[in-house]
Amino acid sequence: MREVGTDWATCPGCGLQLPSVNWASDGRLQNSPECWQLYTELVGATMSQAGRAAAVQQLSIDAYGAQHAGPGVAPITTVFSLLGLFLAIERGVPGYEVRDAHQRLAALDLRWPELTRPARTGEVTVFDVALADNPDEHVRLAHEWARSVWQDWEYCHPAIVELTERHLPDLARR
Ligand SMILES: [Zn+2]
Q1: Residue 35 Cα, ligand 1 centroid: separation in angstroms?
Q2: Pfam families under this entry (predicted)?
Q3: Which of 63, 80, 101, 153 has its CA 20 to 30 A from that of 116?
Q4: β-bridge partners, 101
């Protein structure tokens, strides 16, 4: 609902419109500060929860990263987000193993390809996940969000599969 006199800011990544907070984005992703604030609250909340909601934390980090790729974003950020989504969604790799995989890849110190975000990645956003009112709903919505973003990046799926097979063969063949 829009109120008269409220400034609205549109996120350049996911398209989410939220009341303007007038502070700068941290500049590592293509996002609005308002979208970033909602995301940090969401991820912060899952950190304090044990069990299933905490288990989708890495999935949320990667969904958000892939959804907010773009000019000025380091290639490694986008590639790692997509690798994380692939491992979680297509191979059923749990979040803590995705984190380990990111660390293994970072240690290789490689040059990662620059991937251009598809025109549309915002069908489901962090806002939808934040609407969850219980941990089960949070888990369901986080998966829906991640699957939606991963699907939108379809044109990069072969490149991500290839990178995974080359650098993480044990996980690629799960
Ligand atoms: Zn956004």
Answers
A1: 5
A2: DUF5946
A3: 101
A4: none
Query: Nearest Cα to 130, choosing from 145, 149, 148?
Result: 145
For residues 110 and 96, give the distance between their C-alpha atoms in angstroms, rounded to a whole number: 22
Inform me whether the pLDDT recorded for 97 exceeds 50: yes
Whether 53 has a pLDDT exceeding 80, the answer reads no
User: Could you tell me the distance, in angstroms and rounded to a whole number, from the CA of residue 30 to the centre of ligand 1?
Assistant: 8
Grouping H, G, I as helix, E, B as strand and the rest as coil, residue 76 is helix
Q: What would the two tokens of residue 92 be?
A: 């059923």
Ligand 1 center–CA 23 separation, angstroms: 15
Q: Are 168 and 101 in contact (CB under 8 A)?
A: yes
pLDDT in tens, 105-128: 999 989 999 999 999 888 999 999
Cα–ligand 1 centroid distance for 16 (angstroms): 6
Burial (0-12, 13-18, 19+ Cβ within 10 Å), 131 = exposed
Nearest to 66 by CA among 35, 30, 106: 30
User: What confidence category does residue 26 fall into, taking pLDDT thresholds of 50, 70 and 90?
Assistant: low
User: What DSSP string describes 128-172?
Assistant: HHHT--SHHHHHHHHHHHHHHHHHHTGGGHHHHHHHHHHH-HHHH
Distance 155 CA to ligand 1 centre (A): 21
Q: Is residue 3 over pLDDT 60?
A: no
